[in-house]
């Protein structure tokens, strides 16, 4: 089976490693279905203080991440044609399940994580294939967005979820589809009961109920 390599460029590589080594992503790495590598951006600086940021031209608050470390890092890390470089930005296009499915077909996906006030625009203009936001709010850095997207992409690689889990009928598999409510044992907890229909054994009725429920869950 083909392996998808994720490379995440950040000044906080430990943040990535601690998430990616656990649970499904950890197992998928052991099974060689994916490989998640965090790279310390400071290793790609050329000055003795390993400076990755500087003040903005034109003035304004905060610091901006410099173009050179990203350029040098990509020269070293990016391999072949089936690689995609993703810029994380609060003002990017909102990442979707369709993007996750599409990106799962690449050999390599590289994320650039910003910090401070963001990244020099020349990075996005010259080194990047796509720019994604994970929602309409501002985070302190691009590490969580990179992990969110890595996780969502990895789930779409055959074998990552294991045999029992199905990607066919999940929320967002089709535009606007949201999964029906799910229940497990016990049948009754305090005064809270599982809907009768799910205990009926009538698979046709259960299927119809689930369809209705998933329609009800559509919001906005
Ligand atoms: N000054 C920027 C703005 O107003 O859009 C926000 C910079 S934010 C404090 C620092 C970094 O966090 C960004 O460069 C980006 O990499 C990441 N980031 C923050 N919010 C994000 C979001 N919603 N989606 C993706 N990345 C985000």
UniProtKB/TrEMBL annotation:
> Which keywords label this protein?
Cytoplasm, Methyltransferase, S-adenosyl-L-methionine, Transferase, tRNA processing
Report the coiled-coil segments.
none
Q: For the tRNA methyltransferase TRMD/TRM10-type domain, which residue ranges apply?
A: 4-218
Quote the record's binding site residues for S-adenosyl-L-methionine: 114, 134-139
Q: Which Pfam families does this UniProt record tie to the protein?
A: tRNA_m1G_MT
EC category: transferase
GO annotation (BP), single: tRNA N1-guanine methylation
Query: Transferase: present as a keyword of the record?
Result: yes
UniProt KW Flavoprotein keyword: no
The reaction(s) catalysed by this protein are: guanosine(37) in tRNA + S-adenosyl-L-methionine = N(1)-methylguanosine(37) in tRNA + S-adenosyl-L-homocysteine + H(+)
Transmembrane region(s): none
Q: Which InterPro entries match?
A: Alpha/beta_knot_MTases (IPR029028), tRNA_m1G_MeTrfase_C_sf (IPR023148), tRNA_m1G_MeTrfase_TrmD (IPR002649), tRNA_m1G_MTases_N (IPR029026), tRNA_MeTrfase_TRMD/TRM10 (IPR016009)
EC number(s) per entry: 2.1.1.228
Q: Where in the cell is it found?
A: Cytoplasm
Q: Which GO terms describe its cellular component?
A: cytosol
* UniProt-recorded Gene Ontology molecular function terms: tRNA (guanine(37)-N1)-methyltransferase activity
Q: Which PANTHER family match?
A: TRNA (GUANINE-N(1)-)-METHYLTRANSFERASE
Q: Which family does it belong to?
A: Belongs to the RNA methyltransferase TrmD family.
Q: How does it assemble?
A: Homodimer.
Q: What does this protein do?
A: Specifically methylates guanosine-37 in various tRNAs.
Protein name, per record: tRNA (guanine-N(1)-)-methyltransferase
**Protein encoded by which gene:** trmD
């Amino acid at each position: 089976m083909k392996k998808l390599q994720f490379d995440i460029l950040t000044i906080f590589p430990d943040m990535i490693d601690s998430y990616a080594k656990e649970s499904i992503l950890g197992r998928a790495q052991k099974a060689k279905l994916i490989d998640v590598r965090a790279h310390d951006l400071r290793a790609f600086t050329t000055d003795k203080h390993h400076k990755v940021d500087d003040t903005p031209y034109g003035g304004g608050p905060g610091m901006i991440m410099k173009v050179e470390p990203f350029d040098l890092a990509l020269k070293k890390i990016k391999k072949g044609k089936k690689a995609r470089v993703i810029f994380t930005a609060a003002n990017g296009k909102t990442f979707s399940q369709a993007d996750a499915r599409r990106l799962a077909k690449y050999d390599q996906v590289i994320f650039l994580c910003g910090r401070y006030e963001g990244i020099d625009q020349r990075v996005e203009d010259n080194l990047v294939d796509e720019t994604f936001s994970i929602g309409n709010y501002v985070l302190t850095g691009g590490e969580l967005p990179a992990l969110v997207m890595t996780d969502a992409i990895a789930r779409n690689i055959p074998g990552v979820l294991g045999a029992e889990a199905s990607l066919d009928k999940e929320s967002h598999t089709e535009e606007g589809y949201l999964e029906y409510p799910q229940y497990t044992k016990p049948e009754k907890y305090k005064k809270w009961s599982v809907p009768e229909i799910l205990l009926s054994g009538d698979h046709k009725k259960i299927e119809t109920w689930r369809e209705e429920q998933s329609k009800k869950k559509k919001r906005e």
